[in-house]
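Escalated from tier 1: iron/sulfur cluster holo job.
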Amino acid sequence: MTLLSDFSLFLQEKKQEDVKIAAFLAHDNIPEEMMDACGIFPFRMMFGGNEELMNASHDYLPPSTCAFTQSSIGLFAIKPSKYQFLDLVDYFIVSNHCVSDICASETITKYFNIPRLNFYVSYTKNENSEKYFRLELEDFKRQLEDITKSKLADDKLYGSIKKYNKFKQKLLELNSLNLIGSKKLHIIQEAMLFGPSYYDKLTDFIESNRDKQIHQADTLKNVILTGCSVFISDYLVDSIEDAGGNVCFFDTWIGSHYYSQIFSEDELNSNLNPYDLLVQRYKKNFLSDHSVPNFLDNKIAQLVKINNSYKKKHDKNVGVINHIIKFCDHFSMLSSYFKEKLQKEGIKVLNLERDYSGGNRGQISTRIEAYLEMLE
Ligand code: SF4
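Tier 2 regenerated the structure:
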């Protein structure tokens, strides 16, 4: 609750400074630096849901839409709400991360009267998709310039790219701390919600937790959380910890996918123009779901690599929980292939499909407990 009221105050201050707010569903590839450079706050929608929020979306979309997007619609639909700060949103970005994303974003713009911005990304990754990405950046620039009624200067954009890069490097540092997963996730979520203005808080947090150790670390079963993100106020990581587990790596959009996309100093000083840099980052984002056909094999290879270094250090394999939000096609369709491939490498996988219904919680905990018992 403090997080929501702090964020509400933060957005109100932005409005008083005449800053526009552009919201989008929390996946990857949205060029937040371009908004920042135009003085627009990029607001990553990353709130988990509950039955009430999901049900509130059914007037707009069928219940076969993923639970995250159902809840995101519900956040706008239920009044009065503790997410009242959503009334401050000036624009909503319609993007095509998946079918649910595009349907929910269109619904939000249409039925809650929020002007839309568009940013589309190719599903395949090749030379043409890079060209297409550049065209989308140019189009997005035009849309932002229409809002601000001024030109977006390259040096301003370059400044924002450097600012976000520094912020992500700090998050990467947080990632390496020896902290219990729920604590780490809480800070990651908060930082990603507030953006680079959270940098100093993040630095202080890292300094005061640098030498901390996880209490009774030897008794915990470490797992990598992959698949769909765990969003703000979702209980999933708590359930894993209650069952004796610990998420040691967040291989999700709210996690490593975000802060691993950083530029090296050489890249930043390479004289590439800022749009070339953004295209280059898109090109290197080979773990994105928009890297068809290789995304799943890339992901598997990356998890095997993480497991190998974990095994060297701990002399056992790490577990993998593949979190599938119900009706998320990106992760549900290939979950058997994913599990089979990793199990061949000796890594035990739990494909955990769920929505935000409260009634599922007991069953989810039982499945996690049974899975953790199987781990070394
Ligand atoms: S279906 Fe999956 S990828 Fe799409 S919005 Fe839902 S959680 Fe995100």
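Strands lie at 20-25, 40-45, 91-95, 116-119, 221-227, 245-251, 319-325, 349-354.
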